[in-house]
Design goal:
The chain is of the alpha/beta class. It has helices at about 1-5, 60-65, 90-95, 115-120, 125-135, 150-165, 180-195, 210, 235-240, 245-255, and strands at about 10-25, 30-40, 45-50, 75-80, 85, 100, 170-175, 200-205, 220-225, 225-230, 295-300, 300-305. Helices cover about 25% and strands about 25% of the residues.
């Protein structure tokens, strides 16, 4: 962590806020803020795994970086790539070349184009496509198929193969392993690790923390649209005592190997957020000081958004 702090991040996201224009039942227009003061950094040569419950803002972060949010989205805050602002023009120029995306939904495949042509892309070669197909157990027949002819697992592998046809500096992988058998899921993590070791940065969005720990360098924990902790991946392996934020500890308790231990309450709705700490209503350490605005701070080789973390 000390050496990392001296380096320029490949990707820097700071104080990111995303809202969507909506209409209520009276047809009054309002903005629904779904990401709040979110921070993340990805360095060349590392895998940052982003974890958190559904609705915590993981996929919206990916779409914000890529510039593929819908037209009613409003984005503020700082996003930088290699030290320069990630403007809409830069997003368009980098997307699909220096920044590649492995989407969560297989619907990103063009239903009217054969899979081989989609995977090969504009700059790829037939030879490289065949190597990538072989690695992901996609036989020659798949080249001539259309997406509707693929199983869910095959479509997922085709999306990963398409991303690997490029030589990117940054990979954003949004839940890349659902639908893959365990062996292929592990192989995908190994591929990401190899790419990171060659200097690529990887932003891995996942619900499978156990799988992520096989490859990730750091873990970012999201809750209700904000970052609550960033820490070395090894801290999750050490157990709750090594973690900083109460939600991170609860997240670890909820894993299958820890008997799915629940906590009371639910993640707050974006339209009715509490003031101060967004986890306060569910936190056993809650005090009056939790009602104030809380910033991320450095702690024990990581970062945390909590006044009580030690």
């Amino acid at each position: 962590m000390e050496n990392r702090e001296k380096k320029e991040p490949l990707l820097k996201v700071e104080n990111l806020t995303v809202s969507f224009s909506r209409y209520d039942r009276g047809w009054n227009k309002f903005d629904l803020e779904v990401i709040h003061s979110l921070d993340a950094e990805v360095f060349a040569g590392e895998i940052l795994a982003v974890v958190g419950s559904s609705g915590s803002g993981k996929s919206l972060l990916a779409h914000s970086i890529l510039g593929i949010l819908p037209g009613n989205a409003r984005v503020s805050g700082c996003m930088e790539y290699r030290g320069s602002e990630l403007t809409p023009q830069r997003q368009k120029a980098l997307r699909g070349e220096k920044i590649v995306f492995i989407p969560q939904s297989v619907d990103f495949l063009d239903p009217l184009m054969k899979v081989g042509k989609q995977v090969k892309g504009v700059r790829g070669t037939v030879e490289k496509m065949k190597r990538v197909f072989h690695r992901y157990r996609l036989n020659g027949e798949v080249e001539e198929m259309y997406p509707f002819q693929l199983s869910g697992g095959m479509a997922r592998r085709a999306l990963i193969a398409a991303a690997l046809m490029e030589s990117p500096d940054l990979i954003i992988a949004d839940e890349p392993t659902p639908g893959l058998d365990p062996e292929m899921a592990v192989e995908t993590m190994k591929t990401f690790r190899e790419l990171a070791d060659q200097g690529c940065g990887v932003l891995l969005i996942t619900h499978d923390i156990d799988l992520a720990l096989q490859a990730a360098d750091r873990i970012a924990v999201f809750y209700a649209g904000t970052t609550v902790e960033v820490c070395p991946a090894s801290d999750f392996e050490k157990g709750k005592g090594a973690l900083r934020h109460p939600y991170s500890k609860a997240f670890l308790d909820a894993l299958p190997q820890n008997e799915f231990k629940p906590i009371a309450g639910t993640q707050p709705y974006a339209g009715k957020l509490p003031s101060g700490c967004l986890f306060a209503d569910r936190c056993p350490k809650r005090t009056e000081s939790c009602g104030a605005q809380i910033e991320m701070r450095a702690l024990r080789g990581g970062k945390v958004r909590c006044v009580h973390a030690t």
